[in-house]
Structure formats: structure tokens, C-alpha cells
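User: Sequence in, structure out. Go.
Assistant: Echoing your sequence, followed by the C-alpha cells.
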Amino acid sequence: MAPAGRLSPATDINVTMRACHFYGVCNVLENLLQKDIPAASSPIEAKPQPAMTTEETQAWQDRIHAAADDAALLQLAHEAPTVPLKLTTIEALTLEESFKQAMYDFREHDKRLYRAAKSRWETASGKRIAASEAQTLIAGARALLEQTVIPVNRVVELDQAWAAITVDMLEPALRDEFAGLSAQLGTRVREHGEHAQTVTRWLGATDPAMKALSETLPGVTQGSALPTAAEAPAVALLELVHATPDAGDIRCQEKAESAKRLLALASSVTERAKFLQTLPAPGESDEASERQMIEQWRAIPEMSEGELNSALSARFADWRNTGTAERQREHDTHSAEERAKRADQNKKRVAAIERDVAAAEAAQAEGHIADLTRLLNATDQLLKRGAVNAALTQRIEILRAEQRRLQDWQRWSGRQGREQLVTDAQALAAQVAGKISLKPHAEAIDKLRERWKELDKLGAASNQPMWQAFDGALEAAYVPVAAHLEKLKQARAENLAAREQIVAGLVEAVAKYFPVVVEGADPAAPDWRALGHALEDAKLAWRKLGPVEHTVPRKMLKGNQAITTRYAAAVQALEAPLKNAHADARGEREKLIASAKELAASDVLARDVVDKVPKLQTQWQTVAKSQPLPRRDENALWQAFKTATDAIFTGRDAARAAKDAEANALQKARMDIIEQVAALAHGASAADIKRALAEAETAWRAAPEAPRPQTAKLDARYRAARDAASKRISELAAVAARARYDALLEAIALCGEREATGAPADDMEARWNAIEHLQEAWKTRLENRFRGNADVKATAGLPDHLLNLEAACSVESPDEFQAARQRLKMLALKNAMEGRQTAATTPADIERWLLDAASSVRPDDTSRERLAKIIAAIQRRS
């Protein structure tokens, strides 16, 4: 029987059971009694799941499906007896606020329910945010479509903003609607760009056409250019006016009006210039015709351009004035010409007499009687048309006297000279039998004939037999020279034939590559490469035949039909168009080079720059195939083009390198921070690691923003480095905790050894002082026990301290202490029920009980074993 006024333990338990049933927690009490969970531990984490039949489960599911709204579903989620039913109820929710409420309700009750509610809430909120952003972007796209001019940058921003949305969360209708609007915007932007390019190209083509027409008008007006010179530029400008791309564009309107005024001016200038060109030469028309032409001139409409009108009027006035004065000058000129003609003829006759007299005096001085006689006869014929002055007449008489004297002398000396020439000629004929040098031999024959002619000029006496002997001897001497000349003649003929073949081949090439074109048909472009090869082959063959003046007959080097003239004409017929084609091809290549240089000077990082380079290279290959150039020119131009295209890629690489360098510079600060944090994973002090982590976090927030593609990677690396450092702190904390409890066990052992011996040994003090990793507060409490200064009365509470520690650390108590432990549980549960709150055990409570137990003097063996198990359990939990 229990004492009066106090319930027995069994009665106490029954009362407590009734109180628990009163508060609806009978199941909790039964679970505590069955599983031996400490009453002072953490709150109850889970309730046992009651077994349910299939009918009950189906009934609950029907209730869930029949719920009217999310509020009813939330109520069912709280009332559902099993977790699967609660999950089904949460999954049946539809509103974002309902998911959020479920997260709040189940945060501290069941992690599965909380995670399910959170997942559904994140999906619902993501869909809502994505739908809101999509509606905003669609509205922006519709607003852009209503604008007349759509900014390209706004279209790009819309596409980028759409790409940033989680498109998978959107309804298909929203995705399709934005795709349609984006396609319409792209079409509008392309159409506007193409229209703007067309207008720009038209304006760019109209200005040069107007300039070309304007530049021809002054020449037509002044007569330095034909009136037809303005027709081609006028036709080109008229075609551009008819092809105006946008009649509503103010620039096109102004430019078209200016072009029309210029065309009207050109038409007036051309008509008046043509009329001036049809006028006869001054003086060739009579007065009636002149008056008629004046009337025609006045009938032509005048121009508004004063300078050009004045120039044309001045030309017509000059023609009129010149025609009137020309007829008067014609008569005066005819009379003056007759007088001058007679005077000139007489002057020429006297001059001819003087030349003949001078030549006769020279012939007389040299003794050439034949020349002297001939010149005096010519002078006598001229004297028949008129007399000359006295001085010239006296000179003529002196020459006649000398003529008679020389005729007497030549009769005596001429015979001897001719006989000597016959002897020399016969000696040359005799040399033919041996080996002779042809050139000196031919020169000797020519000299003998020249000496014979000299004697003829001197009037030396001669006879037929002497001449026959002289001529026969020279003919015999000339036989080897004639044979040699015949060989040369044959070689020249063969060389001429070869050259004729070359010229004929060139003429055939002209006919082949430039055939006669039928009227109305487009001439086909010749094969310039084959033409160039044919021309080079002809030139090479011509050079191989040697110098023309030494290898062909001289008669073929004279006149219009000379071989050199025909060769030059044939070469020119092929070379001129080839040079023009080369000039055109060179111009095309230079344009491509200029385009490549402009591209290199532009923004080389633009998206379309790389696409333009292959296009330029393809154009180059097309031009090179259709319009070949000499190898030297082709190589030089290709090198210039290649240098320009290489400059594009060089500049692009440099720009990218600069951009990468800038990005790397922005990343470097964050990379340094990441490396510093990564090094903390090997640190030895938790305090140092924590301080370094705080400094790194401050520096990370202050560091400049990295490029967007690198931000996620850098953040991930930084988080990984922080996690590694935090893990290192945990490891150091665990090591420190284990070392602390090892030091506590060591101190307890020394205290027990000290209490067993009664007096400290010599080495105990040194061993006590050598204990490390023991907190100062713990060492102070235990040092009183080690010195023997501990309060013995405090040792009486050791069983309660150990029991509290075993309950708090979930350590099994010995059998003899089970009843006391059950009482301790029930007392804690009763206090919790009466106080309507759970009395949780804190780490400070465990540390206080542990120090109280460790500082207890002379514990028994059972208490020491229980304390060792408790410390081991605490050490494992730490």
C-alpha cells in the first residue's frame, strides 16, 4: 500500500493515462512506453499510420474527388489518416495560394507533404509568372506591329526576353501567338530594310547618272563633243526616272524632279547643237539660204540655262558673221595669191639656178666634167624663162670656160685610168679559183665599178672592147658572191614564209575570236585565255625568227603591205581588245579588293562579316575564270585581295582576343576569390576558415559582374568551394569534439587514479597539465576533484545525473534503474501535459549534467561504466 495522500506508481500511471486520453494523446503515451523514447527529448516527429481497408481508402478518395474547392481539399489534407491520401489531396489542389498554405501547414509535420506542396507551388507560380511575362511580350509585339517603322533593336530585345522565359510552362496558344507575331515582325523588318536599300541604291545610281549627263552638256554646247554624246547618259537617267522605287518618298520626288529638269535641258541643248552641226561652212551658202537658217534657229525653244544658251547663240552669231566677210575676202585672197604665185615661181627658178651653179662649181673643182656638163645644160634651160642678175651671169660664163678646158684634158688621162681598172678586175677574177673572203671580195668589186663611174663623170675616153673586158672580169669575180647572195635570198624567202604563216594565224585568230555579229544578236564573249595564249605564241615565234630587217627581203619592209605593218596590225587587232578585257578584269578585281578593304575597316565582329568573305572569294574565282589576266598581274592582284581578306580575320581575331581579355579581366577577381575559398578546404583552424569565408563573401559581392555565359559557372564553382570549406569546418568541429571528449575521459581517469591512491604520484601533475583539448570550464570543475577539493555532498545527485543523461542520449540504463527511468519519463510527460508544452532537453542541460557526473567523487564501477557509455554516445552524436 502506498502512503496516504500519495498515489502508488501504478495508480500514478493510470491517472496519467486518463489525462493523456483526455487530451487525445493516448497513442503518444503508449508509443513512449513501448519504444522507451525519452520524455525530455525532441518533439514527436511522426505518428503511426493506422491500417485502412480498401473500402475506407476508396471512401476517402471519393471525398477528395468530391471536394468543392481548395479550402475543402486543405481541410481534407489535415483530416486524411494516411500520407498517400494527404499527397493525393495536395495534388488535387489547383490554386497557387492553396499550395502555399499547404507548404506552411505541413512544413513542420511531414517532409514529403511539404516537398509535394512546394513542388506544385513552384510549378503554379512559374506558370503564372511565365504567362504574365509572355502576355507582356505579346502586347509589346502587337504594339510594334502597329508602328510604321519597326526598330530592329526592339525586335531583338523581344526575342531575347522571350528566350529568357521558361517556355515549357506556357500554354501552346501563347507560344503559337508569339511565334506568329515574331514572324510578322521579322517579315516587316526585312521588307522595310529591302525597301530602304532599294531607295538608297536608286538615289546612289541617280546622282552619278545626272552628273554624267551634266558633264557632257558643256562639251556639246561648245562643240568639242558630238550632240549624240549626251544621248546615252540621258537614256540611262530617263530609265532611272521611270523606275522610281517610291513615288511617295520626298527624297525620290525631289531627285526625280531634278532629273526631269536636267533631261529637258539636255534635250534643248542637243537639238540646238545638232542644228549648228548641220550648218554649211561659212561662205558656202547664199543670202536666201542664210535667212532661212536664221528663221529655223529662232523657231527652236530657248533654254532657261543662261550660260549654255549664250554659248550656243554665240556659235550661231559667229557662223553668220563669218559667212558675210568670207565672200569679200575670197576675191582679195585670189588676187593676192596670183601675184604671190608668180613671185614665188620666179624666186624658185633663181634659187634653182643658184643651186645648179654652186653644184657645177663643186664638180669643176673636183674635175667631174660629166656632172659639170649636165648642170650647165640644166642652167641653160632655166635661163630661157628669164634673165638673172649680172653676178650670177658672170659665174655661169666662168664655168663654161672651165668646161672647155677640162674636156681637152680628160681625153688624154681617161684612157690610162681605164686600162688600170681592167687589169685590177682581171686580178679579182683570178682570185675566185682559191679561197676568198666574200665580204672584202664584194667590196673590192664595188669599188672598181665606182672608180669606172668616176672616170665617166670626168669624161675620160673609153671604147667598147675595153668596157667588155672590164665588165666580163668583174662578172667572173662576182660568181661566188652571187651564189652566196642567192642562199641569203632563199633563207629570207623561207623566213618571210614563216612570218607570213604567223600573220595568217593571227588573222585567223581575229576572225575566230571576233566573228562578224549578225545585227540584233548579242556577241558572245571570246575565250580570253585562249586568245592570250595564241597571241603570246605568235609573239614568241616571231622573235625566234630573228631581226626582221636582216631576215626578210627589203622590198617586204616597205609600203602598206610590208610584213611588219601587217604583223603589227594583226597583233593590234588581238592585243587591243585583250588589253581592254584585261583592264576590265583588273577593274573588277580592284573593286573586289576595295570591297574587302572596306569590310576589313568595318565592324569585323558583325554577324554577317564572315558570310561576306566567301561571297567575295566566290566572285573573285568567277571573275578569274571568265576574265583571265597575265600571271604577274593576276598574282599581284590576288596577293592584294588575300591580304585584305586576311586582314578581316586578323582583325576579327584581335577583336575577339580583346573581348576575351576584357571578359577574363572581369572574371579574374572572381576566379581569385574562388581559388582563395578553395584553398580553405585544407585549412587547419575553423576560426580562420570562418573569418576567411566572411571576407570572401564580402569580396564576392563587391567584385564586378562577369559575362552572362560565365556567371552560372563561376557561381557554381564558388558555391562548391564554400561547401568544401564549410565541410572542412564541420570536420574540424567533429575532430575537436572527439578530442574534447577524449580529454574529458583522460581527466576522469586521472581523477579516479588520484582518488584510488589517496595522494598524487610524481608524474600525475605532469600528466594532468599535459591534457590538451579540454575546455577551461570543464578543466576547472574537474580540477577541484583532482585536487581533492570537490564537494562530497554533490556526489549524491550522481544517479539522477546519469539517468537524465541516458534518457537524453538514448542510452540503455541498467535493469535496476529501469523503474526509475520510467518514473522520470512519466514525470516529464505529466509536466508537459499540465504545462501544455514540451520540455525539450538542451545541449546546455546535457553539458551541465555531464560535468556534474564527471566531477562526482569516487563513483562506483557501475556509475563509471554508465558515464563512459554516455560520453561515447555524446561523442558519436557530436
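User: And one key feature?
Assistant: Residues 593 and 641 are 5 Å apart (CA to CA).
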